């Protein structure tokens, strides 16, 4: 399965497809309001992005898969893995491997992201980082993960095509919100030392309680405005 991860990632790593989609999303997130204002589609897209960073990235990819703080049901695995592919959140195994490496080397020159990595690596994190198979353990070798590895690109490209025809603003704003949140978490969360922020945590699913998380990776509730915990994890413990 680790070999299939590498093959999967190479399919779009060298063409920059994944990075391009995320950068289009970030551009839409930042520039669209300057031209068209805060339309309903834009605000709905931002709200969808906030839900994705809260439940798919923070509660599932981060706390369930990377740190095993709670156990999803099999159906939840498929739901979150499908959403992760549909909005270009990265193949889960790649995301987990990269994040576990971050915890091992955070705030050093081997950290894959953060202030030490520089602005280019934080902005173009997909192009700068390769799959970290050595950080993947047997806890990830299950059928839903193999299913996402096999179908990730098909789900991502199909969703992009459909949403580009139906509602491109909503879709790319949501994609940009998630990727922009990653950049904010990786940089601000480690700027001049690991730190927490109540305000930013509200918009990142609890992820900007970053100091609290690094002090205890197994902690399920990170802070007062941890929507990932109160919206999902609390009910699954």
Describe what you observe in this structure.
There is one protein chain. This protein is an all-alpha fold and about 240 residues long. Helices cover about 70% and strands about 0% of the residues. It is built from twelve helices and no strands. The chain has helices spanning about 1-15, 15-35, 40-65, 75-85, 90-105, 120-125, 125-130, 145-165, 170-190, 200, 210-215, 225-235. Helix 2 (about 15-35) crosses helix 9 (about 170-190), helix 4 packs across helix 8 (about 145-165) and helix 8 packs across helix 9. The two termini are about 30 Å apart.
Walk me through the topology.
Elements: H1 2-13, H2 17-36, H3 40-66, H4 74-86, H5 92-105, H6 119-123, H7 125-128, H8 143-166, H9 168-188, H10 198-202, H11 210-215, H12 227-236
Q: Strand-residue fraction?
A: under 5%
- Gap between N and C termini: 29 Å
What is the residue-mean pLDDT, rounded to a whole number? 88
Q: H/E series, N to C?
A: HHHHHHHHHHHH
- Provide the structure class: mainly alpha
The tally of beta strands, per DSSP, is: 0
Helix fraction, binned, reads 55-70%
Spans of 5+ residues with little confidence (pLDDT < 50)? none
Q: How many helical elements?
A: 12
What does the main sheet amount to? none
Which shape, going by the Cα principal axes?
globular
Radius of gyration: 17 Å
């Amino acid at each position: 399965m680790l070999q299939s991860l590498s093959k999967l990632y190479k399919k779009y790593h060298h063409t920059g497809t994944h990075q391009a989609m995320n950068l289009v999303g970030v551009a839409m997130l930042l520039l669209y309001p300057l031209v068209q204002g805060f339309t309903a589609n834009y605000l709905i897209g931002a709200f969808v992005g906030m839900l994705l960073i809260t439940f798919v990235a923070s509660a599932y990819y981060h706390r369930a898969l990377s740190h095993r703080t709670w156990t999803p049901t099999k159906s939840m695995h498929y739901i979150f893995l499908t959403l992760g592919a549909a909005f270009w959140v990265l193949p889960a195994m790649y995301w987990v491997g990269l994040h576990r490496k971050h915890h091992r080397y955070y705030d050093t020159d081997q950290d894959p992201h953060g202030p030490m990595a520089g602005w280019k690596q934080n902005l173009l994190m997909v192009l700068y980082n390769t799959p970290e198979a050595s950080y993947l353990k047997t806890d990830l070798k299950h059928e839903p993960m193999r299913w996402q590895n096999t179908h990730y690109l098909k789900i991502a490209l199909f969703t992009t095509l459909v949403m580009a025809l139906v509602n491109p603003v909503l879709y790319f704003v949501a994609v940009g919100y998630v990727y922009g949140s990653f950049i904010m978490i990786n940089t601000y969360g480690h700027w001049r030392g690991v730190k927490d922020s109540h305000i930013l945590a509200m918009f990142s699913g609890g992820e900007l309680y970053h100091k609290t998380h690094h002090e205890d990776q197994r902690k399920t509730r990170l802070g007062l405005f941890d929507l990932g915990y109160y919206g999902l994890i609390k009910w699954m413990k």
